[in-house]
Specification:
Radius of gyration: 27 Å
Keywords: Hydrolase, Protease
CATH topology of the largest domain: Pdz3 Domain
Helix content: 10-25%
Organism: Novipirellula artificiosorum
GO biological process, one term: proteolysis
Shape: globular
EC number: 3.4.21.107
InterPro entries: Chloro_Bact_Ser_Proteases (IPR051201), PDZ (IPR001478), PDZ_sf (IPR036034), Peptidase_S1_PA (IPR009003), Peptidase_S1_PA_chymotrypsin (IPR043504), Peptidase_S1C (IPR001940)
Number of strands: 28
Oligomer: single chain
CATH superfamily of the largest domain: PDZ domain
Strand order of the largest sheet: 1-2-3-6-5-4
Mean pLDDT: 80
CATH class of the largest domain: Mainly Beta
Number of helices: 11
Amino acid sequence: MRSTILSRPAIGPLMFVSVVISLSSLMQPLAAQTPRPSGTTSSNRQTPTVLAIRRASPAVVNIHGQKTVRATAAGMAGATGPDSFRQVNGMGTGVIIDPRGYVITNYHVVEDVDEILVTLDDGSTTTADLVSARVRNDLALIKVSVNRELPTIPRGTSSDLMVGESVIAIGNAFGYVHTSTEGIISALHRDVPVNETQEYSDLIQISAGINPGNSGGPLLNIDGEIIGINVAVRVGAQQIAFAIPVDQVVEIVTEMIDDHNEQRLLTGLRTNGGPRDGDGVTVAHVSASSPAARDGLKPGDRVVRVGSRPIDDRLDFALALLGVTPGEPLELAVERSGRQVDVAMQFDAAPRQASAATVEELAWSAIGIQARPVAESTIRRLNARMRTSYRGGLYITAVRPGSPADQQSIVPGDVMIGIHGWQTSNLADLAEIFDHPDMQRGPRAKFFIVRQEQTLFGHMQLAAQSGVKRR
């Protein structure tokens, strides 16, 4: 049975008095009651906050879904067997940045979700696919399944924020969709450690109410423009919450989309331009014999339109290429020497590496772990306490049952600092280890982990693996 959180007061003397007072007010002469003219609205009610929420709300979506987690994550240490996993409901928020349905949210909102469900502003629900993610920055891009254009969030900048200015947060707080709260910017440039393995940097601290479900939602200025992505709250505190600045979000998401596009398209060009240039994207380099060189693009060209889409910055350009199919004709408008030139482009498909696998996939198949880099601040604290000099480590978040890691009693929470004599400071280090000829023969590798401020080691048998495709 659901607990009651709202209740009506019982009818008693106070209620009776309030009714009497209400009835007596109706007994005033008709002349004393001044009706508001039909069709008019008091200007005092349409405050800047009302207008800001009204402007941004159509581009805010609610995200929900289920993920499978080990029972140990729920405090059932030592649980094994088929009943050691359970389904957990998750919820969060996202913002639409492209009318085709591309949405930014926090990675932890969609991490390991079996099916991403998205509720739009009109109440309709659809599914979404994960396009790209940056785990260390806790950002993800998803694509909503729609066959119509959606409203996009008005974009502001976080470069000129002021402590004390009013801000508004919109989100799926505790499942109450499109909950709006208001506050001020309490501080800027906050570095916030979340746990032993993750730390956010350069965040906006706000006093607006943020709750579970707000993650991934927009932080707005009083003009209704997004200036940040709400990401975290201070547990046990009141009116202490944090958001990722929008300029940082734009830069990271642009890099994510560029990486995704490079896996699909061979363009042969590199571009420059800040997130708020507003006057296009400059071609910085064109590779010889590339599609860009073949079709006439030159360094210094400023791309101002792709197809029918105006291009104001690098994010616009990256998003425009998301819709391009290899071999499909594409019209670009560029400014060259003070005049506009139309360029007919046709990007080739990126070369495929059928035998290659991502380092994440190899870590799971060859070792049996999922891992993420440990925050630098955590390594510094660890080195100070243990009197060591580790450059970094990989925090183990999951272990595959029956894998080499499982057989060697490696558990989530361990920090892997080395394999076969090489340090594992990050996933790039792990990729180089997998690529090394000595590892291709599948040796019995010595590994080192840190557990409860102790360095432990063991040996595991790794199967021979194919090359690594970095991403």
